[in-house]
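Field: COMPLEX_INPUT
Field: COMPONENT_COUNT = two
Field: RESIDUE_TOTAL = 638
Field: MODE = joint
Values follow.
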Amino acid sequence: MVFPGKRIKMDIRSIPRDRFLAAFFLTAFIFVLAILLNNYFNEIRLNRLNSIYNDARIDVMNAEVQYNILSENPCLALNFEPMTNELFELGGKLTTMEDRLGKDNEEVLNLKKYYSILEAKQWLFLKKASKECKINTKPILFFYSNEEDCKNCEQQGFVLSYIRKISKDVYVYSFDANLDTSAIRALKLTYNITDVPSLVVDDNTYMGFMDADDLFEILNMEEHE
Amino acid sequence: MAFFLILAYIAAFFGIFSSSIFLLTFYENKERIANPKPKKLLKTSIIVPAFNEESRIRKTVESLLNLNYPKELIEIILVDDGSTDNTLNEMKEFSDKAIVLHKKNGGKASALNIGIEKSNGEIIVSLDADSFVDKNALINMMGYFENEKCVAVTPSMKIWKPKTILQRIQFVEFMFGIFLRKMSAFLGCINVTPGPFSAYRKSFFREHGGYDEKNLTEDIEVALRIQANNFEIENSPNAFSYTPGPSKFKPLFKQRVRWYLGFINNTLKYKYMFSRRYGTLGIFFLPSAFIFVGFAIFLTGYFINKIITNVYKGFIDLLSINFDLFKLLSFRFDTFYLTPNMVTIVTILSLIVTILAVYIARRISEDKERIALSFLLSTIFYPFLFSMWWLISFIYKLLDKDIKWNGVSWKKD
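Field: COMPLEX_OUTPUT
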């Protein structure tokens, strides 16, 4: 056997060009498949969001119409539960879609706008009906931002979810303060919202983060009501 | 966030691309996996360098004595590298069947070189004193030496009866390594001839020098030297050698930092090989090894950072509700949150590719050991361990930190 004293070009093993290309196309195919699957699942999710939105809208309208029809005794059949639950569910799912598709996604933005209008509508109805029917409800308006400028907004959202779980009388309506709708503009103007997070309880505005104890105090709640 | 996401996609693309190359290589060569039959068996000297291996050397030597190979064609050389325990006496018990040598402590490479010097075989096989071999390991390798350009043959290493979590993780890693090494052999890019039972033509050492005694990983150095001289390194997928694998974190960590630091040092030593002249090894394997490691470190770092941030955030959140956890423990099953996103889809695809590779490795290495639990443990922990070992190896390199191994300091690598 002969050994070369210095490096010489022998029969070097190389990946054939067609295998490189095949691997590239296979990988590209897998990625395209992944993108298509992802889009397909997102489409399904958006459709579900739309359907939940429609259900929530119908529930709010139903409650309003029912309230008006039963003008003699509107408080008899008043039940806030279904519509508020639906709205709450929609809110959670919108946040997920916002994370997945990005907060600038047009479809998500549109749904969010509809969602805020629906929230405002429900809040107005809840306020009015609670007053007239003397039902003890504690609606909270929560103004947040999901831009970098609000570090405590997520935490505030967490505390509010907790409060909502503790008390059935608490209804939280969250509004993205950066969302450009006339309803949000009107609310911000009415309650003088200049910073986030901000909360409105009983027509009083509270700027800055509030932990559970602070909220118990302003809502006149015992800790484990 | 977006930057890391893009980086994750590029890494996934690169990972799937590399895996595709290996899988396509398997598909094209699946008829050639089996070992070629040897026409002639060559006289072989098996060298076992040992430093403080009194508890394991016996099993190692006994496995060599049981080799299914003509006894007159085997020469066993046991080299005690200045052990401070009873290793030499253990070796001496085999002095009627093996040559026993003793030298001052100088490291594994120097012990192997003394063994080569004293050997009479045409083929040199190294065997770490903590490992042992299957009885057909040697004969399975011999057919490859029919090809004159083949200078070395690597074995298929397995972790022997894994018990601890770390051993189970290594078990899957080694199994994956069996697939990777065989495919690398087809592509001509094996970059390490491991201590547990790699075989070499003695003439290579004669012509190109013995093991590099100043090298942290002499097995990587010699493999790259063989490749640098444009010879071939083959792999026998069923020449099994077994090693227990470190069972505890610290020895495993030390082993890996030595391996990876050795890889960094040796690729720097042979940096001229990053070129088309060295085929797949130069233009694909060596560069992609570093790219892959880079991605792994970045992404694991990102992932760890995310975990820490979320844990901290969770703590602050809970603090603001006075840790009233029970109220939060309501869970509603909703398929909306189950439908996968892009990251999940790519992760699942990558996992499928890995499972496929491990499945092929099990098939070609005829392994019967149960693997499901080990695979699960590896999937969870290995990426963290791998990235951490590599990151620390790079830090060691940057700080020019010393490593002690087998009683020898390696700072002047």
